[in-house]
Amino acid sequence: METKKYSYDYPHPAVTTDCVIFGFDGSDLKVLLIERGIEPFKGKWALPGGFLKMDETAHEGALRELEEETGMNNAYIRQFHTFTEPGRDPRERVITIAHYALVRLQEVKGGDDAAQARWFTMDEIPPLAFDHDRILRMAQIMLRERIHFEPVGFELLPETFTMKQLQNLYEAILDVHFDRRNFAKKMFHLGLLIQTEDMVRTSPKRESQLLRFNKEKYDELKQKGFRLEF
Amino acid sequence: METKKYSYDYPHPAVTTDCVIFGFDGSDLKVLLIERGIEPFKGKWALPGGFLKMDETAHEGALRELEEETGMNNAYIRQFHTFTEPGRDPRERVITIAHYALVRLQEVKGGDDAAQARWFTMDEIPPLAFDHDRILRMAQIMLRERIHFEPVGFELLPETFTMKQLQNLYEAILDVHFDRRNFAKKMFHLGLLIQTEDMVRTSPKRESQLLRFNKEKYDELKQKGFRLEF
DNA sequence: TCAAAAGTGTTCGCTATACACCCATGG
DNA sequence: CCATGGGTGTATAGCGAACACTTTTGA
Predict the structure, then answer these.
(1) Residue A25 is part of which domain span?
(2) Residue B127: how many CA atoms within 13 Å on its side-chain side?
């Protein structure tokens, strides 16, 4: 502990990136948590995260964390808040730049990380290490607000999906209920959906049509500036 | 440079808070800038900001900056993004937690700070130091989005104001134009405005009614959850 | 008397919402 | 034949957008 190689005239906080990784299984919104293997909070569940390297941006750091945990390297990821309470880490002053990521559950392979990782639905989240409860709650709020400006939901769905799944997703994110017919009408009216030829046997008795996200149309709309009404 | 008193096993970035301070003069949205007195970027205009103290949160740091520059200690202030590009400060690695503040121009006394400070309208902003151009642009975008969830505009207006001023403000923030009658209709319909008895001679020829923000009603609506449509 | 600002209402079209019946399938 | 899930259409109400004339007053 005598070999502290990095010295400054003024005290500097440590900086980490944390990542709230959201996934969707067709009915429920889920979050990936890691069981901590070391103190502090050993054995508790926590958000994936780690120290920012000196030559990477927070965005790159968060992507790195995400890849370590999920093997994904092209996910949607967005910084939403930086948490700075002086006492939030018992070891030293640590501020964390928090992100949320949206991933397709189907594409997630287990992470490299030896760490214990598990997906939790939003209503079975255990108490978390540090101030991660608060970070998670705020991630949910920010995602909920974001959906009014970007069709973020499509980042969570597979290539093709059913209208029912899309509605489940919006309902899970916004925590509201929509009328089935009105929801479909509105979604089609936005023009962001393409109907495919394919059907899928969704459950015991019925098959349903598969949809696809119209990215070209979205990019076009984004140019002009638009709002998603929900 | 030998007396570096603060040492760590791993390199730590320096952390600052920067503050985009918005004001409104009845017609135009303005931003408070500081002329830098020291290198780097000496003589250039920049956002007010400074190093985060080890015992304060970013919010407290931003409030402190704000008070130094404007003498205000109760303004609306909100963190919106943390900028982390490794090269953004030529001296050392500095990340900055950026905030925007909304203040009432009438209440701003000159700051304590000896620094040269000036209000600029949004279309006369000079090139700024560091990456502050980018920070300012993003502040504007975030404020624009925020107004869909909170009636932030009232933070920028005096206690009483005219419908014209309110409309000017919304038009300045959103960079759009509204029909005068439809705008008034919509605002009254939200129920967030109280008509006062008073009139004011706003300009050459005519007097107009003064309005007041209905904070109780707003708090009530916020409880239930609501959206501001624009 | 002209120019500038403010006050005021109506119409039209669209969208949001509420709502019910039919069909196909598997058990 | 029953239960489940998916598909489909209509009627109503409310909101958003477009739009013009009158009044006041100071220059």
Answers:
(1) 14-146
(2) 4
Residues A139 and A167 in one domain: no
Three-state SS for B15? Answer: strand
Judging contacts by C-beta atoms under 8 Å, the chain A residues touching residue B6 are 7-12
Is B190 inside a domain boundary?
yes
The DSSP H or E segment spanning A19 is: strand A14-24
User: Cα–Cα distances in Å, from A175 out to A99, A211, B7, B12, B225?
Assistant: 21, 23, 47, 40, 12
Interface test with A, best of B3, B6, B17, B143 (most A CBs within 10 A): B6
What pLDDT, in 10s, does the model give residues A183-212?
999 999 999 999 998 888 876 677 899 999
> B172-217, pLDDT tens digit by residue?
999 999 999 999 999 999 889 999 888 887 665 678 899 999 999 8
Token reading at B14:
């320096």
Best CA proximity match to A132, nearest among A13, A20, A214: A20
Peptide bond before residue B40 is cis, with ω within 30 degrees of 0 = yes
Cβ of A177 under 8 Å from any chain B Cβ?
no
Q: Quote the minimal CA–CA distance from A26 to chain B in Å.
A: 27
